[in-house]
Amino acid sequence: MSAPHSPLDVDRVRKDFPILERRLAGDHPLVYLDSANTSQKPTAVLDTLAEHYTRHNANVARAVHQLGEESTAAYEGARDKLAALIKAPSRDEIIFTKNASEALNLVAHTLASGLADDPHYRLGPGDEIVVTQMEHHSNIVPWQLAAKRTGAAFRWFGLTDDGRLDLSTIGELINERTKIVSLVHQSNSLGTVNDVATVVARAREVGALVLLDGSQSVPHQPIDVTALGVDLLAFTGHKMVGPTGIGVLWGRREVLDALPPFLGGGEMIETVDMTGSTFAPIPHKFEAGTPPIAQAIGLGAAVDYLTGVGLDRIHEHELGLTAYALDKLNAVDGVRIIGPNSMESRGGTVSFVVDGVHPHDVGQLLDEQGVAVRVGHHCARPVCVRYGIPATTRASFYLYTTFDEIDALADGLHQVKRFFG
Amino acid sequence: MSDSLYQEIILDHYKHPHGRGLREPFGGEAHHVNPTCGDEITVRVAIDGSTITDVSYDGQGCSISQASASVLHELLTGTTVEDAFAVEKTFTELMQGRGQVEPDEDVLGDGIAFAGVAKYPARVKCALLSWMAFKDATARALTGAGQTSEEETR
Ligand SMILES: Cc1ncc(COP(=O)(O)O)c(C=O)c1O
Predict the structure, then answer these.
(1) Which stretches make up the NIF system FeS cluster assembly NifU N-terminal domain (chain B) (predicted)?
(2) Is A268:A280 a contact under the CB 8 Å cutoff?
(3) In sequence order, what are the residues at sequence separation of 6 or more whose Cβ sits closer than 8 angstroms to the Cβ of residue A148?
(4) Mutate to test the interface with A, among B37, B68, B124 (most CBs of A within 10 A)
(5) Which listed CATH number (1.10.8.60, 3.90.1010.10, 1.10.1270.20, 3.80.10.10) goes with B3-142?
(6) B91 in helix, strand or coil?
(7) For B133, which of A214, B32, B120, B152 could close a Cys bridge (C-beta 3.0–4.6 Å)?
(8) Rounded CA separation A328/A315 (Å)
């Protein structure tokens, strides 16, 4: 199969990412196929971080001086950019967190705290929490803890043999007792893109909240939170060409208003008295303490970069890469795809196993050829358990990935097989 | 290719493991898993007086973890408990030496092939998995505890 045409000028995109020029041990060029783990950063983001610290550094929202105003304007400007990216109805609905994990924990923790005025937002005995078997540990463990704390039941959608949600029991699984359904948009281990509309429709019937983990979808496709119909969306900056240390929770205003505060501290209050405190309106209600200022501004630059290239074009490029990769991998004897083995509802993350070779050994030998993939259970161990495998090898693509790099992966796998054959 | 990590000796032990399979009788058993990668191993130790009469094992995992178990079987079966612990200590020191420790072939035999693994921190756990299980199983055999212990090696 010859490489299909891409809507992106990938050579030009790659010039924006200096790290991609690196050569590794043995003078191998870097073939970075681990963007689902963390993405590389373009010069525009790196320069923005340096520029902030070099010229504008000050704390936000609490300084009257000029630097403070510049810093605050840049930080709040980043919030505007994030709101526009996901078409949030209001900028106040963008909460900065330190990563997706913190955003997910924020929701689980505040629902479990029992501090909400409205009982709809208080988990307790008799309530049910629903997740799926393909969640990242970040969207499993916080809910298990919440269930333990409150006595609510913890339930989940299973998976079909071809790596999709088993929605056959949705009518029973999401029921009048369900308070919240929390699911991943695109699986980080299988690449599956889930049928959010069907889940949202059922949740609406019973009045349950829907939290979407967009860590692997927001970086790769245009997102419209209103069209998705979810109540809350969590994602993480470092997987979308932004810095580490910054994530986002979006929520419908009504939901965020109803949830009690998460962390207490400076900036999240209205007034503090020794006999009690009142809280700032959103978004600040959920942003206690000095936030990750430079990181948020850097993420704003990342959003500018991605929208400048065009998320629809990035998405299309990745679909081309994925179709090509599935063909290439299926052509290697003894390689088995774990997850959807077709282009229907899937993204640019492909997990696989190689007959008779442990993923650790696959990853190590690929690394010796300069090909960086991830091996292990990818923080989604229940997926491996479901498919009866200890681990997988995972290749994941982004806007800077080339068709040649997928050829390098396939060549590398032939070497792996020769070596262990 | 793969000069430093995948020595021929390691591949040989991986493809043709020595003494693999769990055997009776045994005095102590331990099951260890490496939660980050899913490698796991069960080791049984049989002791008669002060001599280790058998080290049997079974498990699944990468070439490094499985070959290391095979070498362990070969080195420690038939030795005294005291000598076995000395070998275990030497092997652990080699693995944790970040590539700075000179391997002693008289003590470690085929185990010196793992010297290169010490330069890959992510793989040191794999190489040590069976050795930690061995230590536990032996301790259990010596105290007569016998039963399986479950451990996660982090
Ligand atoms: C689907 C999914 N959810 C959540 C996370 C957690 O992201 P972070 O580690 O940035 O909190 C990840 C990333 O590893 C992910 O892929």
Answers:
(1) 6-126
(2) yes
(3) none
(4) B37
(5) 3.90.1010.10
(6) helix
(7) B32
(8) 20
Rounded distance, CA A98 to CA A83, Å? 17
The C-alpha atoms of residue A333 and residue A138 are separated, in whole angstroms, by 35
Q: Which of A401, A396, A383 is nearest to A338 (CA)?
A: A383
Q: Per-residue b/e over A68-90, b at no fewer than 16 CB within 10 Å?
A: bebbbebbbebbebbbebbebee
- Among chain A residues, the shortest Cα distance to B123 is held by A360
Contact A143, A111 (CB under 8 A): no
Ligand 1 centroid, distance to A45 Cα (angstroms): 20
Chain B positions in Cβ-Cβ contact with residue A419 (cut-off 8 Å):
1-2, 6
Is this complex scored with an ipTM above 0.90? Answer: no
Which chain A residues touch B37 with a CB distance below 8 Å?
Answer: 359-360, 375-377, 390-391
For the stretch A143-188, pLDDT in tens is 999 999 999 999 999 999 999 999 999 999 999 999 999 999 999 9
How many degrees, rounded to 5, is the angle at CA B140 between CA B139 and CA B145? Answer: 150
- pLDDT tens digits, one per residue of A158-169: 999 999 999 999
pLDDT band at A51 (very low <50, low <70, confident <90, very high): very high
Q: Which CATH architecture has domain A46-307?
A: 3-Layer(aba) Sandwich (3.40)
Are A219 and A191 contacting, i.e. CB atoms less than 8 angstroms apart?
no
**Residue A249: CB within 6 Å of ligand 1?**
no
- Domain boundaries A10-32+310-420, CATH class: alpha beta
